[in-house]
Design a protein that fits this description.
By secondary structure, this protein is of the alpha/beta class. The chain is about 45% helix and about 20% strand. The protein has a five-stranded parallel β-sheet with strand order 3-2-1-4-5, with helices on both faces. The longest helix has 27 residues, at about 65-90. The chain is globular, with a radius of gyration of 16 Å.
């Protein structure tokens, strides 16, 4: 069972969750979430998931080096994404790094943070496939614990400003 959302209760502040990945459209989700958070007096939580594809191989002596490199890269990506978010509205996002499968880590973070009010994703602009995370989460959208907003990847900054 999902925790009760407390985003708008006294002493709480709504947070918009953005998954920071290596897709081109990720910037559209950052832009929308930053603008929307500023408008509603909320904040942005940026999640970077380090995927652990082959657990057995990771623990063969070089695991610590591989994990350190992955975390260093994740921090660099979050630095760039955080700078982008701050440049849009001045909102300084929270940063979270997790290891695991992206969809599961998204759900785990939502369960742990009762102030997360919505998940903001962006769909691929080419129209072929919406993107791996959008595809994965859309299968469970009907039972998802919070609203999911999917920003079309082709929208310009001006388009997003008009609706966020």
């Amino acid at each position: 069972m999902s925790r009760r959302r407390r985003s708008y209760e006294a002493g709480h502040r709504p947070k918009l969750l953005v998954v920071i990945d290596d897709t081109e459209e990720c910037d559209r989700a950052i832009y929308f979430a930053s603008r929307r958070a500023a408008r509603i007096g909320g904040n942005v939580v940026m999640l970077r998931v380090i995927e652990t594809h082959d657990q057995s191989q990771q623990w063969l002596g070089v695991a610590d080096i591989m994990r350190a490199e992955a975390h260093e890269e994740a921090n660099a990506v979050l630095d760039r994404a955080g700078a982008r978010a701050s440049s849009i509205t001045g909102v300084v996002p929270e940063r979270v790094i997790r290891e695991g499968e992206p969809a599961q880590e998204v759900l785990s973070l939502i369960e742990e943070d009762e102030d997360i009010a919505a998940l903001i994703l962006a769909a691929c602009a080419d129209g072929e496939e919406p993107g791996p995370l959008v595809s994965s989460l859309s299968k469970t959208a009907g039972t998802f614990p919070i609203p999911i907003a999917i920003v079309p990847g082709h929208l310009t900054d001006e388009d997003i400003e008009a609706m966020s």
